[in-house]
Amino acid sequence: MRFSSRLSHRISGRISAGRRSRIATPVVLLLALLLTGGVVSLLSPATAQSKAVDADMVAKGRALFLVGCASCHGKNAEGIPTVKGGQYGPTLIGVGAAAVDFQVGTGRMPMAQPGTQAERKAPVYDDAEIEALAAYVSSLGPGPDVPDLSNYTSKDASTEDIVRGGEFFRTNCTACHNFAGGGGALPRGRYAPALRGVSEKHIYEAMLTGPQQMPVFSDKVLTPEDKRQIISYLKKTETTPNYGGFTLGSLGPVSEGLFAWVLGIGGLTGAAVWIAAHTARSSRKKREA
Amino acid sequence: MTATANTNGTKAAKVKKPSKSGAAATWADDRLGLGGLAKKNLRKVFPDHWSFMLGEVALWSFVVLLLTGVFLTLWFRPSMVEVMYDGSYTQLRGIEMSEAYASTLNISFDVRAGLLMRQIHHWAASIFVAAMMVHLLRVYFTGAFRKPRELNWVIGSLLLLLGTLEGFTGYSLPDDLLSGTGIRAADGFMKSIPVIGTYASFFLFGGEFPGDSIIPRLYTIHVLLIPGILLALIAAHMLLLVYHKHTQWPGPGRTEKNVVGFPMLPVYAAKAGGFFFVVFGALALMGGLMAINPVWRYGPYNPAEVTAGSQPDWYMGWPDGALRIMPGIESSFWGVTIPWNVFLPIIVLPGLMFTILLMLPFIEAWITGDKREHHLLERPRNAPTRTAIMVALMTFYGLMWAAGGNDIIATELHLSINQITYFMRGAVFIGPVIAFLIARRWCISLQRHDNETLLHGYESGVIMRDALGGYTEKHLPLPLERAYTLTARDRDEQQLSLPGTDGNGVVKPGSRKDQVRAKLSDWWYRNNVQKPTRAELEEAHHHAELEHVHDAPLEGHAADGHQFDGRHDVHGEELRSH
Amino acid sequence: MSDKHELALTESDPIADPGLPAHLPRPTDVDESAEIRAERQVAALFGISTIFTLLFCVAYFTLDIGDNPTVFLGLGASNVALGVTLGLALLLIGIGAIQWARKLMADTEMVELRHPAGSSEEDKAESIAALNAGVEESGIGRRPLIRNSLLGAMAALGLPAIVALRDLGPLPGDKLFHTVWKKGMRVVQDVDGSPIKPEDMEIGQLVNGEPAVFFEEDANGEPIYHGVELQVEKAKGAVIIVRMQPDDIKPMKGRENWGVEGILCFSKICTHVGCPISLWEQQTHHLLCPCHQSTFDLADGGRVIFGPAARSLPQLPMAVDSEGYLVATSDFTEPVGPSFWERG
Fold first, then answer.
1. Are B285 and C84 inside 8 Å of each other by CB?
2. Which of residues 166-205 of C touch B (CB under 8 A)?
3. Cβ separation of C341 and B337 shorter than 8 Å?
4. Residue A142: what pLDDT?
5. In terms of DSSP bridges, do strands C239-243 and C206-211 run parallel, antiparallel, or are they unpaired?
6. Which residues of B touch C266 (CB under 8 A)?
């Protein structure tokens, strides 16, 4: 058991590596396909299995894929390398249903235009279509599946969960996403997006799959329980009242300084102008009392 | 109440009974002898202008800082002993943290009005330093730092420096993740100092970073050492202000020899006292409505954690910007290392900038050779070089400041951090030069414009068409008061009698220093526009009268359209068609 | 400036000083109803201020903080209400007082004469004479022995001022050159202390790590490191572990076997001024410091590719122990964190 799980992971590691490499060869594809029906499917949860065998769904997803995705990712999702050696669209073999659900479900895919970073926007596909696309992509190679509600729900989170989630959050997430989940800058115009208003499922999938420049936080190291705690903390902070008043964008001292100058100094200078301004004058003479 | 004598009485009526306040004053004076002082100062005259109140904003924020600061000390515990938090903020319950951070949470969540006082204190600190800076700019741009007020400039600069340090120490006290990151960086700054750096760090932190001494030590500095010096310096600043009497803008009846305005009692007591309440009130509103430094969101300090957008408070932003755009240069030789990439921008540059700031009045006096006392202010345009120097310094400061927020600028404006940084590396050198040149030319243009309006009047907005079909705008002479105010300034060439030149401006075979000085002085005043002489003014007015004569036949008839100049009844008039 | 100059100045002045303009009264000076209106206005401002002060007290006692705070529009009601009532109470007093001065207090401008900042020549001469007399009587000029020995004694007093501060902290010694890492110490995930196997990590994975010793207990069940010691060691020992495509990693001489299957471990402490860094881009392998934007390429030995840092990020050599967990094979080979003089 230990051996097989180790093996499967090494292979899946290779495959997920291949999806980012332009030398995604048919060998890997073949290997991946073999594995789908092989070792991994034995170890996969039953839900994944039932989805994978839903041939209708896969066919529907493939049809959608060919229309909406293949122009960048290739007809067989093998990826299209650019002349310079970069990726026009990376291979999707082995990225798993979770990645599709995240990318398409948050509207990042399909991209509006090629660019440094896919932006979050209103999703183009509805839930059924996303499910079909996910089924198709996961049929190409094994990858992380869409998590179950029990993995990510913050509904029954205890105070301990939230506190621990906060610790995980500050250790693993604040460096890029800022202390309030407000997002932050990355090199060369890229950025870590804001986390406010992102659904629990999508946060989980992002950690699981490492979209774009975000590192992967696999379940083996950051366990599903740890992830659920992080999500619980984030959701808790969204509902926590802003004790001190309006948050000024939660950007830290930069926005505070801006408000101190514009409102504070600006307003008080206005007051000074009023104090020193001359009042209305009258040409009438004071009546003698 | 009339003071009619009671004719039925046996004693002569007392016309005036000493009032209660009078009696109290007498009692105090019999013991303290304040009469002489009070006589001079109770009705002391202060001139009225909005820009004279910017320093007051700083003063009153300082008072607010003292009041709210005392409130905070009642609950704050400056200790780095690790405790388990079990207060009201559930998201941090059960976490090990320093007592300083735990007590800050306690003030924020379990002391009523505690959060308000914390936020007022923090806003007041931001405003305190900001108000000192705008006050400094006002003093500089109007030439109020000139003799005899140079020492007050020095005191003010020290106040700015100490206020900044006071702000940084206060920002660090809650021991949250953001301020801890700031202290971590400060440790790096200290270690960059050649020879003594490592020792300085170990002595300040009581060992290796972070140790358990830094918070209590910063606390002593924050609540005792710096406020004590600040208070003493503020007192000196105010005493000198009273002694020198306030500067004033030139105008009719306002000269170098007098000061025109309203008396301390009652007008300034009410205005300045009222302004204290306005400042306090504005800060209370800010503290109530706008969150500042939400330390509970940052979490306790942990040397393995960091947050995106780690910035110091705004007044530390510009050296932080210098640090961000500095290229990574470091020297290692003979077994030692000098990290220029840290030492230059954060230790040397602020020291240099502060020295320049401190020396500005002395540098200007040395260049111009001006040894007279000045109590009348100069408009910024009438000292183009001076104005341009400060504009250049402000540009430098502003660019550094922006560089300090490069990550926020990048995310908010969708730019690349790298490009911003490369741009800033050039801009901090080129920007001030461009700003200097523009500001100086702009001032000179404004001077020209002033002379223009003096000589030829102001633009009335009335367009005249003459007999030949040409259009001119009618200029009207300035009111006398306004014209006088424009001319109430010095002629620059009078201050040029340097030791390097004799009475006729011929360079003596003097020292090299004198020649440099003469050249600098020439550069300082070159291109400045002087106010017109009486002869020029009379000539121009004479010319204007001739024009009037020329215009006279136009009144009422002749050129078509003139009836529409707004001064004639145009009922039934219409333009002739051709 | 000579008197001649002063004279020339006034002659060249184009316009003579017309003198202070005539004082014009305000409406409140001449119109009794305006005066009464202003008076009532000021009194009303003060009156409303009192109401807000009372409201402050009401808000203080009625709005809850703590476990179950009163919330208003998603904001902490107590803070907002206290701030607004206090702010308005203060503002109204201020506005009232200023309005009083503007509308009702005498507003005739007064003229006060200035005097030169320096004292009169007589006073100057007298004070210098007094000073000289004092110096003369003390004999400080005539008795250099006393003067110099006093100056020497005073200068020596500077020593205790410095010496007495010696105990502010220990000497650095070689503390900055070492961390708790040593051969065989496991790398564990921060917060929960779980050890990491190479196969647990996927390509593109980032783990914020710590040395295992931070989570270990001694024989008495007490943590080995806690409190200040833990913070001090954490500030040097924190690491990040990343897994990259082995092909992407540029081999570095002498570090061929520092990684395990594309897994590399670097110090988390920025070499610029010491911020912990973990902004890792998995596709470019770049690591960005959020404090001053130094950027390191982890696929290229932690080399600086952008920003103010001058030194590569120190790398921790890694191996797998007998149970298959990632361990360090030694301490860092160079001091971590910001540069300092003695670093060499």
1. yes
2. 168-172, 175-176, 190
3. yes
4. 86
5. antiparallel
6. none
Please answer yes or no on whether C199 and A10 come within 8 Å at the CB atom. Answer: yes
Furthest-apart CA pair in chain B: how many Å?
106
- Report the C-alpha gap between A193 and A200 in whole angstroms: 15
Burial zone of B394 (CB within 10 Å; 0-12 exposed, 13-18 middle, 19+ buried):
middle
Over the stretch A10-50, which tens digit does the pLDDT of each residue have?
Answer: 444 444 444 444 555 555 555 555 555 444 444 444 444 44
Does ipTM exceed 0.85? yes
Q: Which of C92, C175, C228 sits opposite B212 (nearest CB)?
A: C228
Question: For A183-211, what is each residue's pLDDT tens digit?
Answer: 888 888 889 999 988 999 999 999 999 99
Cβ pair C27, A280 in contact under 8 A: yes
- Overall residue count recorded for chain A in this entry: 289
Find all residues with CB under 8 Å of C93, minimum gap 6, and list them: B274, B277, B281, C45, C46, C49
- Residue closest to B402 by CA, chosen among B389, B390, B415: B415
Rounded Cα distance, C186 and C183, in Å: 9
Is A282 within 8 Å of C242 when comparing Cβ atoms? no
Q: In sequence order, what are the residues at sequence separation of 6 or more whose Cβ sits closer than 8 angstroms to the Cβ of residue C215?
A: C188, C193, C223
Which residue in the set A185, A254, A269 is minimally distant from B417, CB to CB?
A185
**CB B75 within 8 Å of CB B103:** yes
CB of B112 within 8 Å of any CB in chain A? no
Q: Do B50 and A275 touch (CB under 8 A)?
A: yes
List of chain B residues with pLDDT < 70: 1-18, 493-510, 547-578
pLDDT (tens digit per residue) in B323-362:
999 999 999 999 899 999 999 999 999 999 999 999 999 9
Whether pLDDT at A53 is above 80: no
**Using CB atoms, which residue from C102, C284, C290 is nearest to A175?**
C290
Q: For residue C96, what is the nearest residue in chain B, using CA coordinates?
A: B274
